[in-house]
Design goal:
Layout lengths: L3 E2 L9 E5 L6 E4 L7 E5 L5 E7 L10 E6 L5 E10 L4 E3 L2 E3 L3 E9 L2 E13 L3 E9 L4 E3 L2 E3 L3 E9 L2 E13 L2 E10 L4 E3 L2 E3 L3 E9 L2 E13 L1 E4 L3 E5 L4 E3 L2 E4 L3 E6 L12 E3 L5 E9 L5 E11 L4 E2 L3 E2 L13 E2 L3 E10 L5 E8 L11 E2 L2 E2 L3 E11 L4 E10 L2
Parallel strand pairs: 7-11, 12-16, 17-21, 23-29, 31-38
Antiparallel strand pairs: 1-2, 2-4, 3-5, 5-6, 8-9, 10-11, 13-14, 15-16, 18-19, 20-21, 22-25, 24-27, 26-28, 28-29, 30-32, 33-34, 33-37, 35-36, 37-38
Pfam families: CHU_C (PF13585)
Organism: Dyadobacter jejuensis
Protein name: Gliding motility-associated-like protein
């Protein structure tokens, strides 16, 4: 036994009829009405009751009370919803993706339908355009993507509790500057490239940082020049002899040679030389690398020992005694010839000349006569130009005393 509602799924505030059970003499509703049925507004949760008096009841204690609560009727709901561009919102079997107001009636088994009004707002995704320049070898991270090459890239960035953002990236990759250098250093030296120091031959690659610029790649081809020269430190030769000097030169580069001094050298810029010194001297060889400023030196001291000399007497006595009758130069085997033999009187006048004759030949000497007459006693001067067998020429001059 219960109170019945004619339209249990009525909309809120619609008029509905409540009906009490049959078979009672009297009806008394809490609204004060005394009929079997009453008309009320459908308000969910509103409470009503009716007192029922049976027929032939002698006491109110026999009355029966029925309670009734207005159930939820046709549910009416208003939803204000915001979604991100590209997303969808479903209401029942309907799917929406554009801004607007949508009305949907949803059936629910064993329950009243629901009437749903959806105010849908589509939030446009924020868009960003970026121009970015990076250096070769570097990377750009956008969201979960990594880029290392020139190009135009599109990314959708997911953000918790917010709409995604659209990022367009125009990426330019700047190549690293590259430089190759050929360097030469001397043995024992070193070079510095960036933070690195090198002392051995080889190819080295360095990445050098530059403030506010991309790094540079420097390739260094390094050659260590070794240059060594060795010659005897001293030699002794006889006067008029030659000395062949052949130095030992060790190098991994082409080089130039320079001897000094030039006196007596057959070649001042050759490795091996023939030295014909006229006096003791020290000769220095300077060897220089052509690819670098590397040098090496060595010196040889040559002592010239006189082998033979040209002699003339200090006193000349042409007095017909067959002793020291002729004044002439006397020389050893190292002298090839007398080129010119000249006698001068005390006033510097030439009184005798002989040319091109072997040394120690009296037949080419001065007999002490001037123009066929005996020369006066006194001091006379001489000048002798002679040639050694090695073609070296030399002068000898002096004076002598003529005594009769």
């Amino acid at each position: 036994m219960e109170i019945n509602q004619d339209f249990p799924c009525a909309e809120e505030n619609d008029a509905v009829t409540l009906t009490a059970p049959d078979g009672f003499e009297k009806y008394l509703w809490n609204t004060g009405e005394r009929s079997k049925t009453i008309s009320v507004l459908h308000k969910t949760g509103e409470r009503y009751f009716v007192n029922l008096t049976p027929f032939s009841s002698l006491s109110e204690n026999c009355d029966l009370r029925l309670d009734y609560t207005i159930p939820s009727g046709l549910g009416t709901y208003i939803n204000k919803v915001s979604i991100c561009e590209g997303e969808t919102y479903a209401v029942g079997d309907s799917v929406y993706r554009n801004t607007g107001v949508y009305l949907n009636r949803l059936s629910r088994p064993g329950q009243c339908d629901s009437l749903i009004t959806t105010e849908l707002t589509i939030i446009k995704l924020p868009e960003t355009y970026k121009k970015i320049t990076i250096c070769e070898g570097d990377s750009l991270h956008v969201g979960n993507s990594t880029y290392q090459e020139n190009g135009l890239y599109f990314n959708r960035i997911h953000q918790p509790d917010r709409c995604d953002s659209l990022v367009t990236t125009e990426l330019t990759v700047t190549p690293l500057s590259r430089y190759t250098q050929e360097l030469y250093i001397c043995e024992g030296e070193s070079i510095v490239v960036g933070n690195s120091t090198y002392k051995k031959s080889g190819t080295y690659i360095n990445r050098l940082s530059r403030p506010n610029q991309c790094d540079s790649i420097v390739t260094t081809h390094l050659t260590v020049i070794y240059l060594k020269v060795a010659i005897p430190t001293s030699e002794q030769i006889l006067f008029g002899d030659d000395l062949h000097v052949k130095p030992q030169i060790i190098s991994n580069d082409t080089y130039t040679s320079l001897w000094s001094p030039n006196d007596g050298l057959n070649c001042y810029n050759c490795d091996s030389v023939l030295i014909s010194p006229t006096a003791s001297n020290t000769y220095t060889l300077l060897v220089q690398s052509k690819l670098s400023s590397c040098t090496a030196t060595a010196a040889i001291n040559i002592e010239v020992v006189p082998m033979c000399q040209l002699f003339t007497p200090d006193i000349f006595t042409p007095n017909q005694d067959s002793v020291n009758e002729i004044f002439f130069p006397i020389g050893g085997s190292c002298i090839r010839q007398i080129l010119q033999f000249t006698i001068y009187n005390r006033w510097g006048e030439v009184i005798y000349v002989a040319r091109n004759f072997p040394p120690s030949e009296a037949s080419f000497g001065w007999t002490g006569h001037v123009k066929g007459k005996p020369a006066s006693p006194g001091t006379y001067n001489y000048r002798i130009e002679f040639e050694y067998i090695n073609t070296l020429r030399q002068l000898k001059s002096g004076d002598f005393l003529l005594v009769r």
